Amino acid sequence: MMKKMFSNLMYLRPYLEGSRLLLVLSFGALAMVSLIAMPIPLITGKIIDNLSSPQGTTHFLYQQVIIIICLHVIRYVLSLIGKYYIVKAGTRASNVLRMKMIGHTVDMPMEFIDKHDKGYLMSRISESGSIGSLFSPSVINILIGVLDGVISVILLVRIHWKLSLIVLAIIPLYVVVTVWYSRRMSDSTRKVSESSAEMAGVMFETLNGIEEIKVQGAKQRYISRIYTKTDQVITAILKQNRNINGYMESSSLLSSLSGAIVLLFSGIMILGKTLTLGEYVSFTGYLAKVLGNVQAVATFGVTINPIMVSIDRVREYMDNKDEEFGRRMVLSEPIHSVNIHNISYAYISGIEKRSVLDQLNVNLFTGDIVILNGANGSGKTTFVKLLLGLYPVNKGTILYNGMDISCLKLSDLRRRVSYISQKTYLFQGTILDNILPNAQPEQLVHLRALLEKYQLQPFISDFPNELDTEIAHGGANLSGGQRQMIAFLRTVLANKEMVILDEPTANMDAIMKSRVIQMIENEAFYKILVVISHDPDLFYLGKPLNLGESSREDGGQQFYMKNEDR
Ligand SMILES: Nc1ncnc2c1ncn2[C@@H]1O[C@H](COP(=O)(O)OP(=O)(O)OP(=O)(O)O)[C@@H](O)[C@H]1O
């Protein structure tokens, strides 16, 4: 356990970087807390021996009691300060880790993201809070207790070494109990975390789809899915509690037995005059600290185990390679060619493999406009996702300016490409934020000119606060066509080298659609344009590339391109 804790603390070091001095000072203060309270049982024993001797004086009593009170007050102040700053450092560190985990999740390959529910991912990210728990008052108390315990053992030996041997003989039993239970606790805690993350996944999906669930009358189906997952969580929690309680009760029993045995031997020694009453009081004072702290170490296992399991899981999560792993090359020039050579792709989920694209060849050059069509499910969206490097091709190559996409830094590639997905995702913020993130004055002028040129002012003035209208979560306060137009304007103003539009006009009325077509024809906002559409009104814009089964030539070697000369 200590080894694991040390290794986890080493892992967390970078996240504690900014708070290192604070932590050292706080731990120093807390170590002082331990040391300052240490003489109290000794002083108490001395007072008792003094009072029970003929030389006993009230002056000695007052003096020693004042010392004890001062020690308690200093301990109180140091403890408050130390704990406050440790908790502060822990909270800061867990926040830094949370941000890193969110960033890492965004950078994960889509194949990883597809495999997990969003709620599951959220649960995993929330495990970053485990650092905060590591620096919580309960853990800190236990750590101070460990120091207390060690010093108390030394003082026990100094007071009466023979009596101490009896106490020390019991400690191996604690070790056996601790080791036995801590393995079981690790397993059960892991199961609790995993099943809770899965449950959160199902809950998240349910909450996300409330509208659909209502309309389809699917409430019962979803509730029973949650019930199954909850059942798994409950089973795991019960098992975890069985282990925790077993551990606590066993260590508590050992503590009580130790106290009784010490009382027996001390009594005999007091009767034999080899131990004074004061020494007995001091001894039991330190014994209480030792046993209390052995108990604390036992509790430490219970408290720290879930935290260690969480940190292990955070490490596992962060060890997953992100999509940029091993990619070093950047495009030194604007994209002028995209050569898609014999690519194939199949989605794999579990043992199921769904082949979507098979030996596809396409070459795109500056000035090309390609209209992708084909039956539903024929792989059009998958094709553009491969172009964006969201999924790696299974076979074949995609070359940008002759450079293989598998070596290219994806962030560099995507900086050069604008993509509007079928789902038209809008960010939280205003309409303007969505059209022009970080709008510069000259971009605003460009936007206004565009709105005027294509008679789109009525489109904007339809919103309560025009461009400053706040967009609700997921664009809930906008219609499908409005969302598409906002996303399209964003693309026109982004002025990227390659633009990919997936069903850009699917929800638009005839007027809006005609504006989009005019902008594609008149505005130079792309070098290469790929449009996925089932709408014949858009076909004439460029070379249609049909991905439908019926249009394959050469046994699937080549995809049919209509109107090649257009
Ligand atoms: N993430 C995924 N995991 C597994 N299968 C997927 C995934 N995304 C798409 N598919 C499957 O791949 C096939 C192609 O899907 P894709 O979205 O590329 O088709 P499309 O041609 O764009 O269809 P549409 O015209 O309906 O938009 C479909 O059979 C779909 O079920």
UniProtKB/TrEMBL annotation:
Protein name: ABC transporter ATP-binding protein
GO cellular component labels: plasma membrane
Bilayer disposition of the protein: Multi-pass membrane protein
Chain segments annotated as coiled-coil in the UniProt record: none
UniProt subcellular location: Cell membrane
Membrane-crossing residue ranges in chain numbering: 21-40, 60-78, 134-157, 163-181, 252-272, 292-311
SMART domains: AAA (SM00382)
PANTHER family in alphabetical order: ATP-BINDING CASSETTE SUB-FAMILY B MEMBER 10, MITOCHONDRIAL, ATP-DEPENDENT PERMEASE MDL1, MITOCHONDRIAL
CDD domains: ABC_6TM_exporters
Residue ranges constituting the ABC transporter domain according to the UniProt record: 338-566
A GO MF label: ATP binding
Domain ABC transmembrane type-1: 24-304
Highest taxon of the lineage: Bacteria
Pfam family, one: ABC_tran
Main location: membrane
UniProt keyword terms in alphabetical order: ATP-binding, Membrane, Nucleotide-binding, Transmembrane, Transmembrane helix
Protein's organism: Paenibacillus amylolyticus
The organism's taxonomic lineage, starting at the top: Bacteria, Bacillati, Bacillota, Bacilli, Bacillales
Keyword Membrane: yes
InterPro entries: AAA+_ATPase, ABC1_TM_dom, ABC1_TM_sf, ABC_transporter-like_ATP-bd, ABC_transporter-like_CS, P-loop_NTPase, Type_1_exporter
